[in-house]
Amino acid sequence: MATDARPKTIFLVEDNRGDIRLIQEALKSTAAPCEIVIARDGMEAMAYLHRQGEFAEATTPDLILLDLNLPKKDGREVLADIKASDALKHIPIIVLTTSRNEEDICKSYDLHVNCYISKSRNLTQLFKIVQGIEAFWLETATLPSSTP
């Protein structure tokens, strides 16, 4: 188990307010202390990650939960940009999306996503998914330092 006691930062890139609320609720019921930072579109996500403008003091997240279907800049583009950046490519990314399209799955893994999970519309199942993500990625896995 990871021994780092500092709260982990989860960067949730999601435009659906309902999904944001459900994911936040699921993470509240988990054991690992975490801070959830939200971006509602791909452009905002990249500005945060590159510490631009209002995000100049942003912390590097420990984990990114990325939806594919985003406004302004598609999640596929965000994934490609993150993995092409020497400063960001070490951050684990989980695609958490409604898409079950084989092309999306293959393309995400081609872009070096760490995990691809299709969201469940079943509330209980969605909570289990999010809690499983938290248990593995924040409690079990050893993550790289978030310091650039």
Automatic annotation (TrEMBL):
Modified residues (4-aspartylphosphate): D67
UniProt cross-references to Pfam families, sorted A to Z: Response_reg
Matching InterPro entries: CheY-like_superfamily (IPR011006), Sig_transdc_resp-reg_receiver (IPR001789), TCS_response_regulator (IPR052893)
Domain Response regulatory stretches: 9-134
Keywords, alphabetical: Phosphoprotein
SUPFAM superfamilies per record: CheY-like (SSF52172)
The UniProt record lists the keyword Transport: no
Residues annotated as transmembrane: none
Lineage top rank: taxon: Bacteria
Entry-linked PANTHER family: RESPONSE REGULATOR RCP1, RESPONSE REGULATOR RCP1-RELATED
Name of the featured protein: Response regulator
Organism the protein comes from: Leptolyngbya subtilissima DQ-A4
